[in-house]
Amino acid sequence: MRTSFTIAAFTLAASSAAQEAVDCKIVEFPVSVTASNEVFGSSFDPESVSSIDQFLSQGLSTGAVDVVGEASTTANFSISAQYCAPAGATHPESLPIQLLAHGNTCDRTVWDALSNSDLQASGYSYQRFFASQGYATLAIDLPGHGKSTLPDPNTIIQMAIEAAVIDAIAASLRSTSNPLGVSFSKIVFTGHSYGSITGVAAARFAPDFVDAIVLTGWSAFVPLPSPLLQLQMQPAALLFDRFKGYPLGYITASNETGHEESFYGGAYDHTIPKISFDTQDVMTCGEGGSLGVGLQPATGFTGKVFAITGSEDILFCNPKNGACADQLANSSFLFPNATSFQSQVIDNTGHDFMLHFSSTETFAKIQQFLVNNV
Ligand SMILES: *[C@@H]1O[C@H](CO)[C@@H](O)[C@H](O)[C@H]1NC(C)=O
Ligand SMILES: *[C@@H]1O[C@H](CO)[C@@H](O)[C@H](O)[C@H]1NC(C)=O
Ligand SMILES: *[C@@H]1O[C@H](CO)[C@@H](O)[C@H](O)[C@H]1NC(C)=O
Ligand SMILES: *[C@@H]1O[C@H](CO)[C@@H](O)[C@H](O)[C@H]1NC(C)=O
Question: What pTM, to 2 d.p., does this model score?
Answer without folding.
Answer: 0.94
